Design the sequence.
């Protein structure tokens, strides 16, 4: 399939536009503006009111004013000073000021005695009103050349407002009328203009209200962008669903045995998620489900029940963790439970070498290993299962849409369950996981202790150390998290290595361990193992402990320079304590004075342990890109849509895309054809490849 001809004018070289030569095209390109379509999707940031006034007399300077004047005397430049032209409006006079005016330019443009309309910023200089370099000077019969409300575009160095406005107007002239791709009922209900009319309105605002994300034209254009994205995800989802899966139905015997051994009952949320997964696995299409739950909501149990369904159905399951520490932790948590219900569970990581590895691979191929836990090593070329039914991927956001597609491309009709402990605001989870079905765990299992959170000035660090000394003598354990490894010249953050030395001096060498991301994996694992077994009482760490580490006896979490961490990260770190019977504490040590945003983050953390509320607040404070980190988020970069302010639109776009595809899977109807054009317009090439040929 190739780009439809109707879009050719929007994908031409920028030099086809008015006022854009090869040089300015290069400057535009540095701001990722390479074709007319890019200018169409770069909307004005603000606007300048240039409504005509009778006089500048009542204006409070500085202010932008548009006024008709009679040109008076010219005062030539003296030395390096400016040239000045005295002008009079209906009630007062003022000066137009020009630096470096060339030759006869002023006398030609501002002949004495003639009427002109000028627009620019009025300022007072030594009590005299003046307008330095007016933005506009036009004859009275050209008044329409000055818009009553002039859009202001985001600028790139070397491009003026006038150049971008002229080029954009030229791009709008090239924009064709396109078929309607949005649901007609929705367009009518929202009172939205058509696509081309929305472009015109967004680029020619009449007042400040037209610049708001809630203005109908802007909402419409944001919706088109979100709709194209959701069609891409919906097509990926439809394609996965169209692939036949393997029906995996268990008799429930092993699951019931495992549940009977637990000292507590699963929560209603866990039961609901298990039922949703069981229904997916029993269906003939492939499961592609996200299990989203806050720290300590019991995702591992749900995943284990899903793996048991695969085993009950006569197949195998795999559980993939992002790090070796986490893979081993899953092994320790699940192996006793698996053994008690007669299921063979093994681990495979990059550390397995030679004969050992060979034996495991053979057992896997024969089907003797029923559940395999491991790192990404589980999906290497030489790892073959006898009958893999379910792949569980832990800690999703290191594993974006692309990796999910690669995992699916292994060819086997494997059901996929992805677990994430990062509560994600709804708008973002739809942007990131719109190709998946979602189960949410929003209850904490019984027995999880609330964590007391306190803010403390870092100057009180000695009191904290004294408190730790007392806790250690009671047999308790603590984490001490530092933001950086090694002294950094550019930062005054206390390094983990320095803190490690000072705590060993204060608490005794044998009591304190250290882990950070730059240690060799074997050393890191050994330090973790000593802490898990209780050999060391305090673990000084960087954020490598953020995800999933489980030490029930650890009941104190100290986070040094807490103001330098993000909210979600602080919440994840706090979730490392409160896992055992002891009352737990999280101490946030901050350096005064705190900035407004940092104070807000720490206050939110002190007020609530609800990860979903924290995630929504984090989105409001930081914005979508920072929240997940664009690099590994798989989150699209939208030019118009604002995920923080237009959250509701994403859900509408998802429903619209899914409903449209259900009615017209090959996009061959009139609306379907319009959607194809939208996907080309928004450069959703992935989606175009997914449309079944036809």
Sequence:
């Amino acid at each position: 399939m190739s780009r439809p001809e109707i879009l050719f004018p929007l994908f031409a070289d920028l030099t086809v536009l008015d006022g854009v030569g090869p040089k300015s095209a290069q400057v535009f390109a540095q701001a990722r503006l390479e074709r007319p379509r890019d200018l169409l999707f770069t909307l004005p940031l603000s606007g300048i009111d240039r409504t005509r006034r009778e006089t500048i007399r009542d204006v409070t300077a500085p202010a932008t004013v548009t006024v008709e004047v009679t040109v008076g005397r010219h005062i030539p430049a003296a030395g390096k000073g400016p040239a000045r032209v005295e002008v009079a409006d209906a009630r007062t006079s003022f000066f137009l000021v020009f630096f470096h005016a060339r030759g006869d330019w002023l006398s030609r443009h501002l002949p004495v005695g003639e009427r002109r309309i000028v627009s620019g910023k009025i300022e007072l200089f030594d009590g005299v009103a003046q307008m330095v370099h007016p933005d506009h000077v036009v004859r009275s019969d050209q008044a329409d050349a000055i818009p009553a409300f002039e859009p202001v575009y985001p600028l790139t160095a070397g491009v003026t407002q006038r150049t971008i406005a002229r080029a954009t107007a030229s791009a709008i002239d090239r924009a064709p009328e396109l078929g309607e791709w949005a649901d007609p009922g929705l367009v009518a209900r929202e009172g939205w203009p058509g696509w081309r009319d929305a472009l015109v309105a967004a680029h020619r605002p009449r007042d400040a209200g037209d610049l708001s994300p809630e203005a109908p034209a802007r909402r419409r254009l944001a919706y088109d962008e979100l709709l194209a994205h959701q069609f891409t995800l919906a097509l990926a989802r439809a394609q996965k669903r169209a692939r036949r899966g393997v029906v995996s139905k268990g008799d429930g015997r092993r699951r019931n045995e495992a549940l009977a051994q637990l000292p507590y009952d699963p929560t209603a949320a866990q039961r609901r998620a298990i039922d949703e997964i069981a229904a997916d696995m029993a269906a003939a299409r492939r499961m592609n489900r996200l299990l989203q739950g806050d720290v300590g909501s019991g995702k591992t149990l749900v995943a284990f029940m899903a793996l048991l369904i695969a085993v009950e159905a006569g197949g195998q399951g795999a559980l993939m963790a992002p790090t070796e520490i986490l893979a081993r932790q899953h092994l320790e948590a699940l192996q006793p439970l698996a053994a008690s219900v007669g299921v063979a569970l093994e681990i495979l990581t990059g550390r397995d070498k030679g004969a050992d590895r060979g034996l495991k691979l053979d057992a896997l191929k024969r089907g003797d290993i029923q559940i395999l836990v491991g790192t990404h090593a589980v999906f290497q070329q030489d790892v073959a299962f006898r009958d893999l039914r379910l792949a569980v991927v832990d800690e999703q956001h290191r594993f974006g849409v692309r990796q999910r597609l690669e995992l699916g491309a292994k060819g086997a009709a494997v059901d996929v369950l992805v677990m994430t402990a990062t509560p994600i605001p709804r708008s973002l989870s739809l942007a990131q996981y719109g190709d998946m079905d979602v189960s949410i765990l929003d209850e904490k299992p019984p027995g999880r202790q609330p964590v007391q959170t306190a803010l403390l000035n870092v100057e009180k660090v000695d009191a904290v150390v004294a408190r730790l000394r007392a806790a250690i003598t009671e047999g308790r354990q603590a984490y001490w998290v530092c933001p950086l490894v090694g002294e950094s010249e550019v930062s005054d953050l206390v390094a983990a290595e320095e803190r490690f030395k000072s705590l060993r001096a204060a608490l005794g060498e044998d009591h304190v361990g250290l882990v950070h991301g730059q240690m060799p994996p074997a050393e890191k694992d050994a330090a973790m193992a000593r802490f898990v077994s209780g050999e060391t009482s305090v673990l000084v760490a960087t954020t490598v402990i953020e995800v999933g580490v489980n030490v029930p006896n650890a009941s104190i979490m100290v986070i040094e320079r807490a103001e330098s961490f993000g909210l979600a990260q602080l919440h994840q770190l706090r979730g490392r304590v409160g896992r055992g019977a002891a009352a737990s504490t999280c101490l946030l040590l901050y350096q005064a004075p705190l900035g407004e945003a940092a104070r807000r983050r720490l206050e939110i953390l002190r007020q609530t342990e609800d990860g979903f509320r924290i995630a929504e607040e984090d989105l409001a404070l930081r914005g979508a890109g920072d929240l997940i980190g664009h690099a590994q988020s798989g989150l699209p970069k939208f030019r118009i849509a604002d995920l923080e302010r237009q959250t509701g639109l994403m859900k509408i776009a998802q429903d619209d895309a899914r409903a449209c595809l259900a009615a017209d899977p090959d996009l061959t109807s009139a609306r379907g054809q319009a959607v194809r054009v939208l996907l080309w317009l928004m450069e959703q090439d992935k989606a175009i490849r997914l449309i079944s040929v036809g």
